[in-house]
């Protein structure tokens, strides 16, 4: 018998409603709807997500799925962003985007209340200027007084079911959850002066949230998209690293317990909650954002550019001309990424790439260096020796990036699944419905063996202060 599940998977560029058909241990995904999610600049009012539009897409997706007799549905999305629900049950204002500059200066403000070492010892969360805790600090305190904070997937589930809660994998990205107890840290909440009523009760992946308007059960999945993606990594053994590669590259290891020491904090590694009590020990890298934002700009300027062609041409450019640090804060806000890359190269005395293929070559090699750096650092900090890198998500279709990542890491890269987050989403639902016991059997669609001399990668990495070995 076939069992059907709906997975809503929201990325910061596009969202999908997928139908997952589970049949004898295998999951087959098909796309019901795909829609842009990208944030909009409100005149005078910051960078915001259109939550109403996403809600409408979910409703339309459920209607599209209806003939399939759906067992349940679940929602995952990017992390850290939230809506505030008032005592009247209504969403107060919009949901702001984490790329909004309102968090400027909040790192310093938080430091006055809690020092970095204490914050990390409790939460194990890497410093990203847009973590929820910094966004909350940027709110006028009176706005928070009588509100409940719902992270985006929880907010969308609330709009479907009326049930309030915070799913734990995503809650961990707020930097308000205790990484050891996996409960909200009352201690931190008090130190920061947030109202204790702000944070709703936690829920676990697999729990029933409620019932949607059409009777479809809504199940809490690993609602952080990266947690869903990691849950779908088709690893055969424990000795693997992963890269969940989309707008961001999330690079790290699956561990049984958090690594909360000073070295991990200084290396800016995070301990996000995974399914079944696991820890996602990883580091954020700016990811394909650099490429998609550049493509957007070139198209706006009227360049007749396609991704396939520019990738092909990029690989004909000379290697290792210029390398940038993709994690530099200058690359975070939307805008002219090629100009910022040029600036970075000029500032560091490297040749400035001027054509789209040259810029793309720089982006690909820089991402590969950042991937290799994070794989190596994760392994050292956790005392592991990964033998293979599983690269999952949309980036697994980017052949040059997979190839360069294998070369830079000096490890084989197993590419795929592409729709890892949607697959992990379906997996948790199907397990909860007891129609699947284990990670679904998926085979990576390609494998890239490392080639070429290591010395060139080591030299390129040094230009951005990275020691590859
Ligand atoms: C990837 C992601 C990542 C977060 C970022 C905000 O989509 O969820 O794990 O750090 O978005």
UniProtKB/TrEMBL annotation:
One of its GO terms (biological process) is glycerol metabolic process. Keywords: ATP-binding, Disulfide bond, Kinase, Nucleotide-binding, Rhamnose metabolism, Transferase. One of its GO terms (cellular component) is cytosol. Residues 7-212 form the Carbohydrate kinase FGGY N-terminal domain. This is Pentulose/hexulose kinase. Belongs to the FGGY kinase family. GO terms for molecular function: ATP binding; glycerol kinase activity; rhamnulokinase activity. Residues 241-432 form the Carbohydrate kinase FGGY C-terminal domain.
């Amino acid at each position: 018998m076939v069992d059907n599940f709906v997975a809503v998977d929201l990325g910061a560029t596009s969202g999908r409603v997928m139908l997952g058909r589970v049949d004898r241990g295998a999951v087959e995904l098909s796309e019901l709807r795909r829609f842009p999610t990208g944030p909009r600049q409100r005149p005078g009012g910051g960078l915001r997500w259109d939550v109403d539009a996403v809600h409408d897409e979910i409703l339309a997706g459920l209607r599209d799925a209806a003939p399939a007799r759906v067992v349940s549905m679940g929602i995952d999305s990017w992390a850290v962003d939230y809506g505030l629900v008032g005592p009247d049950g209504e969403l107060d204002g919009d949901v702001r985007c984490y790329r909004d500059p309102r968090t400027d200066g909040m790192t310093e403000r938080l430091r006055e209340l809690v020092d970095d070492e204490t914050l990390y010892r409790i939460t194990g969360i890497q410093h990203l200027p847009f973590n929820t805790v910094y966004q909350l600090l940027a709110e006028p305190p009176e706005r928070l007084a009588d509100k409940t904070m719902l992270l985006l997937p929880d907010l969308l589930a609330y709009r479907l079911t009326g049930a309030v809660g915070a799913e734990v994998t995503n809650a961990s990205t707020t930097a308000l959850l205790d990484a050891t107890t996996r409960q909200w840290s009352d201690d931190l909440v008090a130190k920061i002066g947030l109202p204790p009523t702000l944070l709703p009760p936690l829920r676990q992946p697999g729990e029933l949230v409620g019932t949607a308007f059409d009777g479809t059960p809504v199940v809490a999945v690993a609602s952080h998209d990266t947690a869903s993606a990691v849950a779908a990594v088709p690893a055969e053994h424990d000795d693997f690293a992963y890269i969940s590669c989309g707008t961001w590259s999330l690079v790290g290891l699956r561990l049984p317990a958090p690594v909360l020491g000073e070295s991990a904090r200084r290396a800016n590694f995070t301990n996000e909650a995974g399914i079944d009590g696991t820890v996602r020990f990883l580091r954020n890298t700016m990811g394909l954002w650099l490429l998609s934002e550049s493509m957007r700009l070139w198209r706006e300027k009227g360049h007749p550019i396609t991704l396939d062609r520019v990738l092909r041409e990029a690989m004909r450019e000379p290697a290792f001309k210029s390398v940038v640090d993709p994690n530099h804060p200058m690359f975070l806000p939307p805008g002219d990424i090629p100009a910022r890359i040029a600036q970075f190269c000029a500032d560091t005395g490297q040749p400035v790439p001027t054509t789209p293929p040259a810029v793309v070559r720089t982006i690909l090699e820089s991402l590969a260096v950042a991937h290799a750096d994070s794989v190596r650092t994760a392994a050292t900090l956790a005392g592991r020796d990964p033998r293979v890198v599983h690269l999952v998500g949309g980036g697994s279709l980017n052949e040059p990036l997979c190839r360069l990542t294998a070369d830079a890491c000096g490890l084989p890269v197993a590419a795929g699944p592409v729709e890892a987050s949607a697959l992990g989403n379906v997996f948790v639902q199907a397990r909860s419905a007891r129609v699947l016991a284990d990670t679904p059997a998926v085979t990576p669609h390609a494998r890239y063996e490392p080639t070429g001399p290591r010395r060139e990668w080591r030299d390129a990495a040094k230009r951005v202060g990275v020691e590859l070995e």
